[in-house]
Design brief:
five-stranded mixed β-sheet, alpha/beta, globular
Length: 126
Amino acid sequence: MSESMRIGHILPVKASLLQNQQKAQTANTAPASEFNKLLKASELNFSHHAETRMKQRGIQLQPEALSKIMDAVKEAETKGAVDSLIVLKDVAMIVNVPSRTVVTAMDGTQLHSNVFTQIDSAVIIN
C-alpha cells in the first residue's frame, strides 16, 4: 500500500477519447463565449473615476438615458471612433468606445467653458 495510485493505472484512458471530450467541451463553450461577447458589447461600463465624478456631481442616469447613451456609443463605433464625447441634455461623458467604458462624466455646470481634449469624436443626443 506504500505505492501511490494514479488514475491511469486504475483505468487507462485512450488519448483519442480525451481529445474527443476536449473537442466536445470546446464546442459547448463556443456558443457561451459568443453569447458573453454579445452581452459584453451591449453593456456600458463605468471606470472608478467616472463613478466617483458622478457621485460628486450628483449625476443619476435613468434607464432610458443609458439606452440612448449606448445607442450613441454604437453609432460612434460604426464611424470608427475610439474616444468619444457623448452629450445628453445636461450630462457629458467621455467614453472609450472599444471597451464601452465611461472614463469621466460632468454635469451642465462643467459643460460650459470646458475644453475637451484627447477625443476623436462627439455625439450630441437630443
